[in-house]
Specification:
By secondary structure, the protein is mainly β. It is built from two helices and 30 strands. The two termini are 39 Å apart.
Length: 390
């Protein structure tokens, strides 16, 4: 069974077999702690993906047409895995570096982010609801994990709480309560509930799932949990596993994902809501116009009303884009939702010149708003996450 950790490792192996045929672009490098933002649409955090683990990476700005405008000095960025934003601030954590950063989206100022008494380890996920920021410290899969959090209005006061079961997969904050999904080394799923006012773990509950069900298929930082009409929903990918034999290598087939409806007080599963589309893996959840939008790829989404009726929403993309992407080997990766706009990063697999593309969609209408092709900015810089400059 795949976990988020296994998926990330598999991705790294893919990146490492890519050739060095790419040429570095002439991007103006900034040697100060501020990144010029003039004309930029996105800030990209890029890093190497190699066995040396040198923690080499940088921030880049790019416009909507895919032109690089500036880059930061080299920093300790390695496998950036979550770049989440609230108002004018964006927060970055890494999967192979213990360094974390915050970027001011109005001035471009970059600052290091760290809490005292925090263990020296990487992260899998980060979340902000505008009031709080919270990230995990993934030190040892078999031991309790630290969560570092603070109020954005009082950012110098950072607190630490410990949860008992596995690495974090997704985090969601509702008022002063944080919900954290995790998996342990046996891929058993848990939901933890933490009171951020008191810093206390309220409860941790094992999810009763079949062996072929697990949470998330893309980035752990994608919003796979959300509150909707008083219920907590968790996106689940369902997987059929064919056991290995001496003559046949084990394989995995994904089909028919679903949403778990949980009681937010007891964390008990009240309902499983199937999405009857074997080619759709529910990954990111957002509430738009009093409906729950379920996201996965650049092609379509599903919309659920308060009576849990699910209907499809096809994104309105032109035939040229559809045909181009149909001929490529791609993966859905980061999905960021800001207000009613979804930004979906589609990653190209084994492409020597281009990392992928970010497409923006209006989640009220399904209208395609923009398409930004992301070339590699420099030799060996493979792994990427992004923030949006509005």
């Amino acid at each position: 069974m795949l976990t988020s950790c296994a998926i990330i490792i598999a991705g790294i192996i893919i990146f490492n077999i890519m050739t060095d045929a790419k040429k570095e672009q002439a991007i103006p490098e900034n040697t100060t702690d501020s990144l010029p933002l003039d004309g930029a649409k996105y800030i990209l955090a890029f890093s190497e993906a190699n066995a040396s683990r040198e923690n080499k990476g940088a921030f880049f700005t790019i416009d909507q047409q895919g032109n690089y405008l500036s880059r930061s000095a080299e920093m300790n960025i390695s496998e950036p895995i979550a770049f989440k934003q609230a108002d004018k601030d964006a927060y970055l954590v890494n999967n192979s570096s213990s360094d974390r950063y915050t970027v001011d989206l109005t001035t471009g100022k970059i600052q290091s982010l760290k809490a005292t008494q925090q263990k020296n380890a990487q992260s899998f996920t980060l979340h902000t609801n505008g009031e709080y920021v919270i990230y995990d410290v993934a030190a040892d899969y078999t031991k309790p994990q630290q969560l570092v959090y603070w109020k954005r209005a009082n950012a110098h006061v950072k607190k630490i709480v410990t949860i008992p079961n596995g690495f974090a997969q997704s985090i969601y904050i509702h008022h002063d309560i944080a919900y954290i999904s995790t998996s342990n080394p046996d891929a058993t799923q848990y939901i933890h509930q933490v009171n951020l006012k008191t810093g206390k773990l309220m409860q941790a509950k094992k999810l009763t799932l079949k062996a072929e069900e697990y949470t998330q298929s893309a980035l752990p930082s994608n919003q796979s949990m959300i509150m909707f009409h008083g219920k907590l929903y968790v996106a689940v990918t369902k997987t059929h596993v064919i056991p290995a034999t001496k003559d046949y290598q084990s394989d995995v087939y994904e089909f028919n994902g679903s949403l778990l409806q949980l009681n937010p007080k007891t964390l008990k599963i009240e309902k499983k809501i199937a999405i009857k589309d074997k080619n759709f893996n529910p990954d990111t959840l957002a509430v738009v116009q009093n409906k729950l939008v379920i996201l996965d790829t650049f092609e379509k989404a599903y919309v659920m009303n308060k009576k849990t009726k699910i209907t499809p929403m096809k994104f309105k993309i032109d035939e040229q884009m559809k045909n181009e992407l149909a001929q490529m080997d791609t993966n859905s990766d980061q999905i960021t939702v800001i207000n009613q706009t979804a930004y979906i990063f589609t990653q190209y697999v084994k492409n020597e010149k281009t990392r992928g593309e970010i497409n923006a969609y209006n989640l009220k209408t399904g209208q395609h708003l923009s398409r930004t092709i992301i070339p590699y900015p420099a030799k060996d810089y493979y792994i990427m996450t992004f923030a949006v400059i509005e």
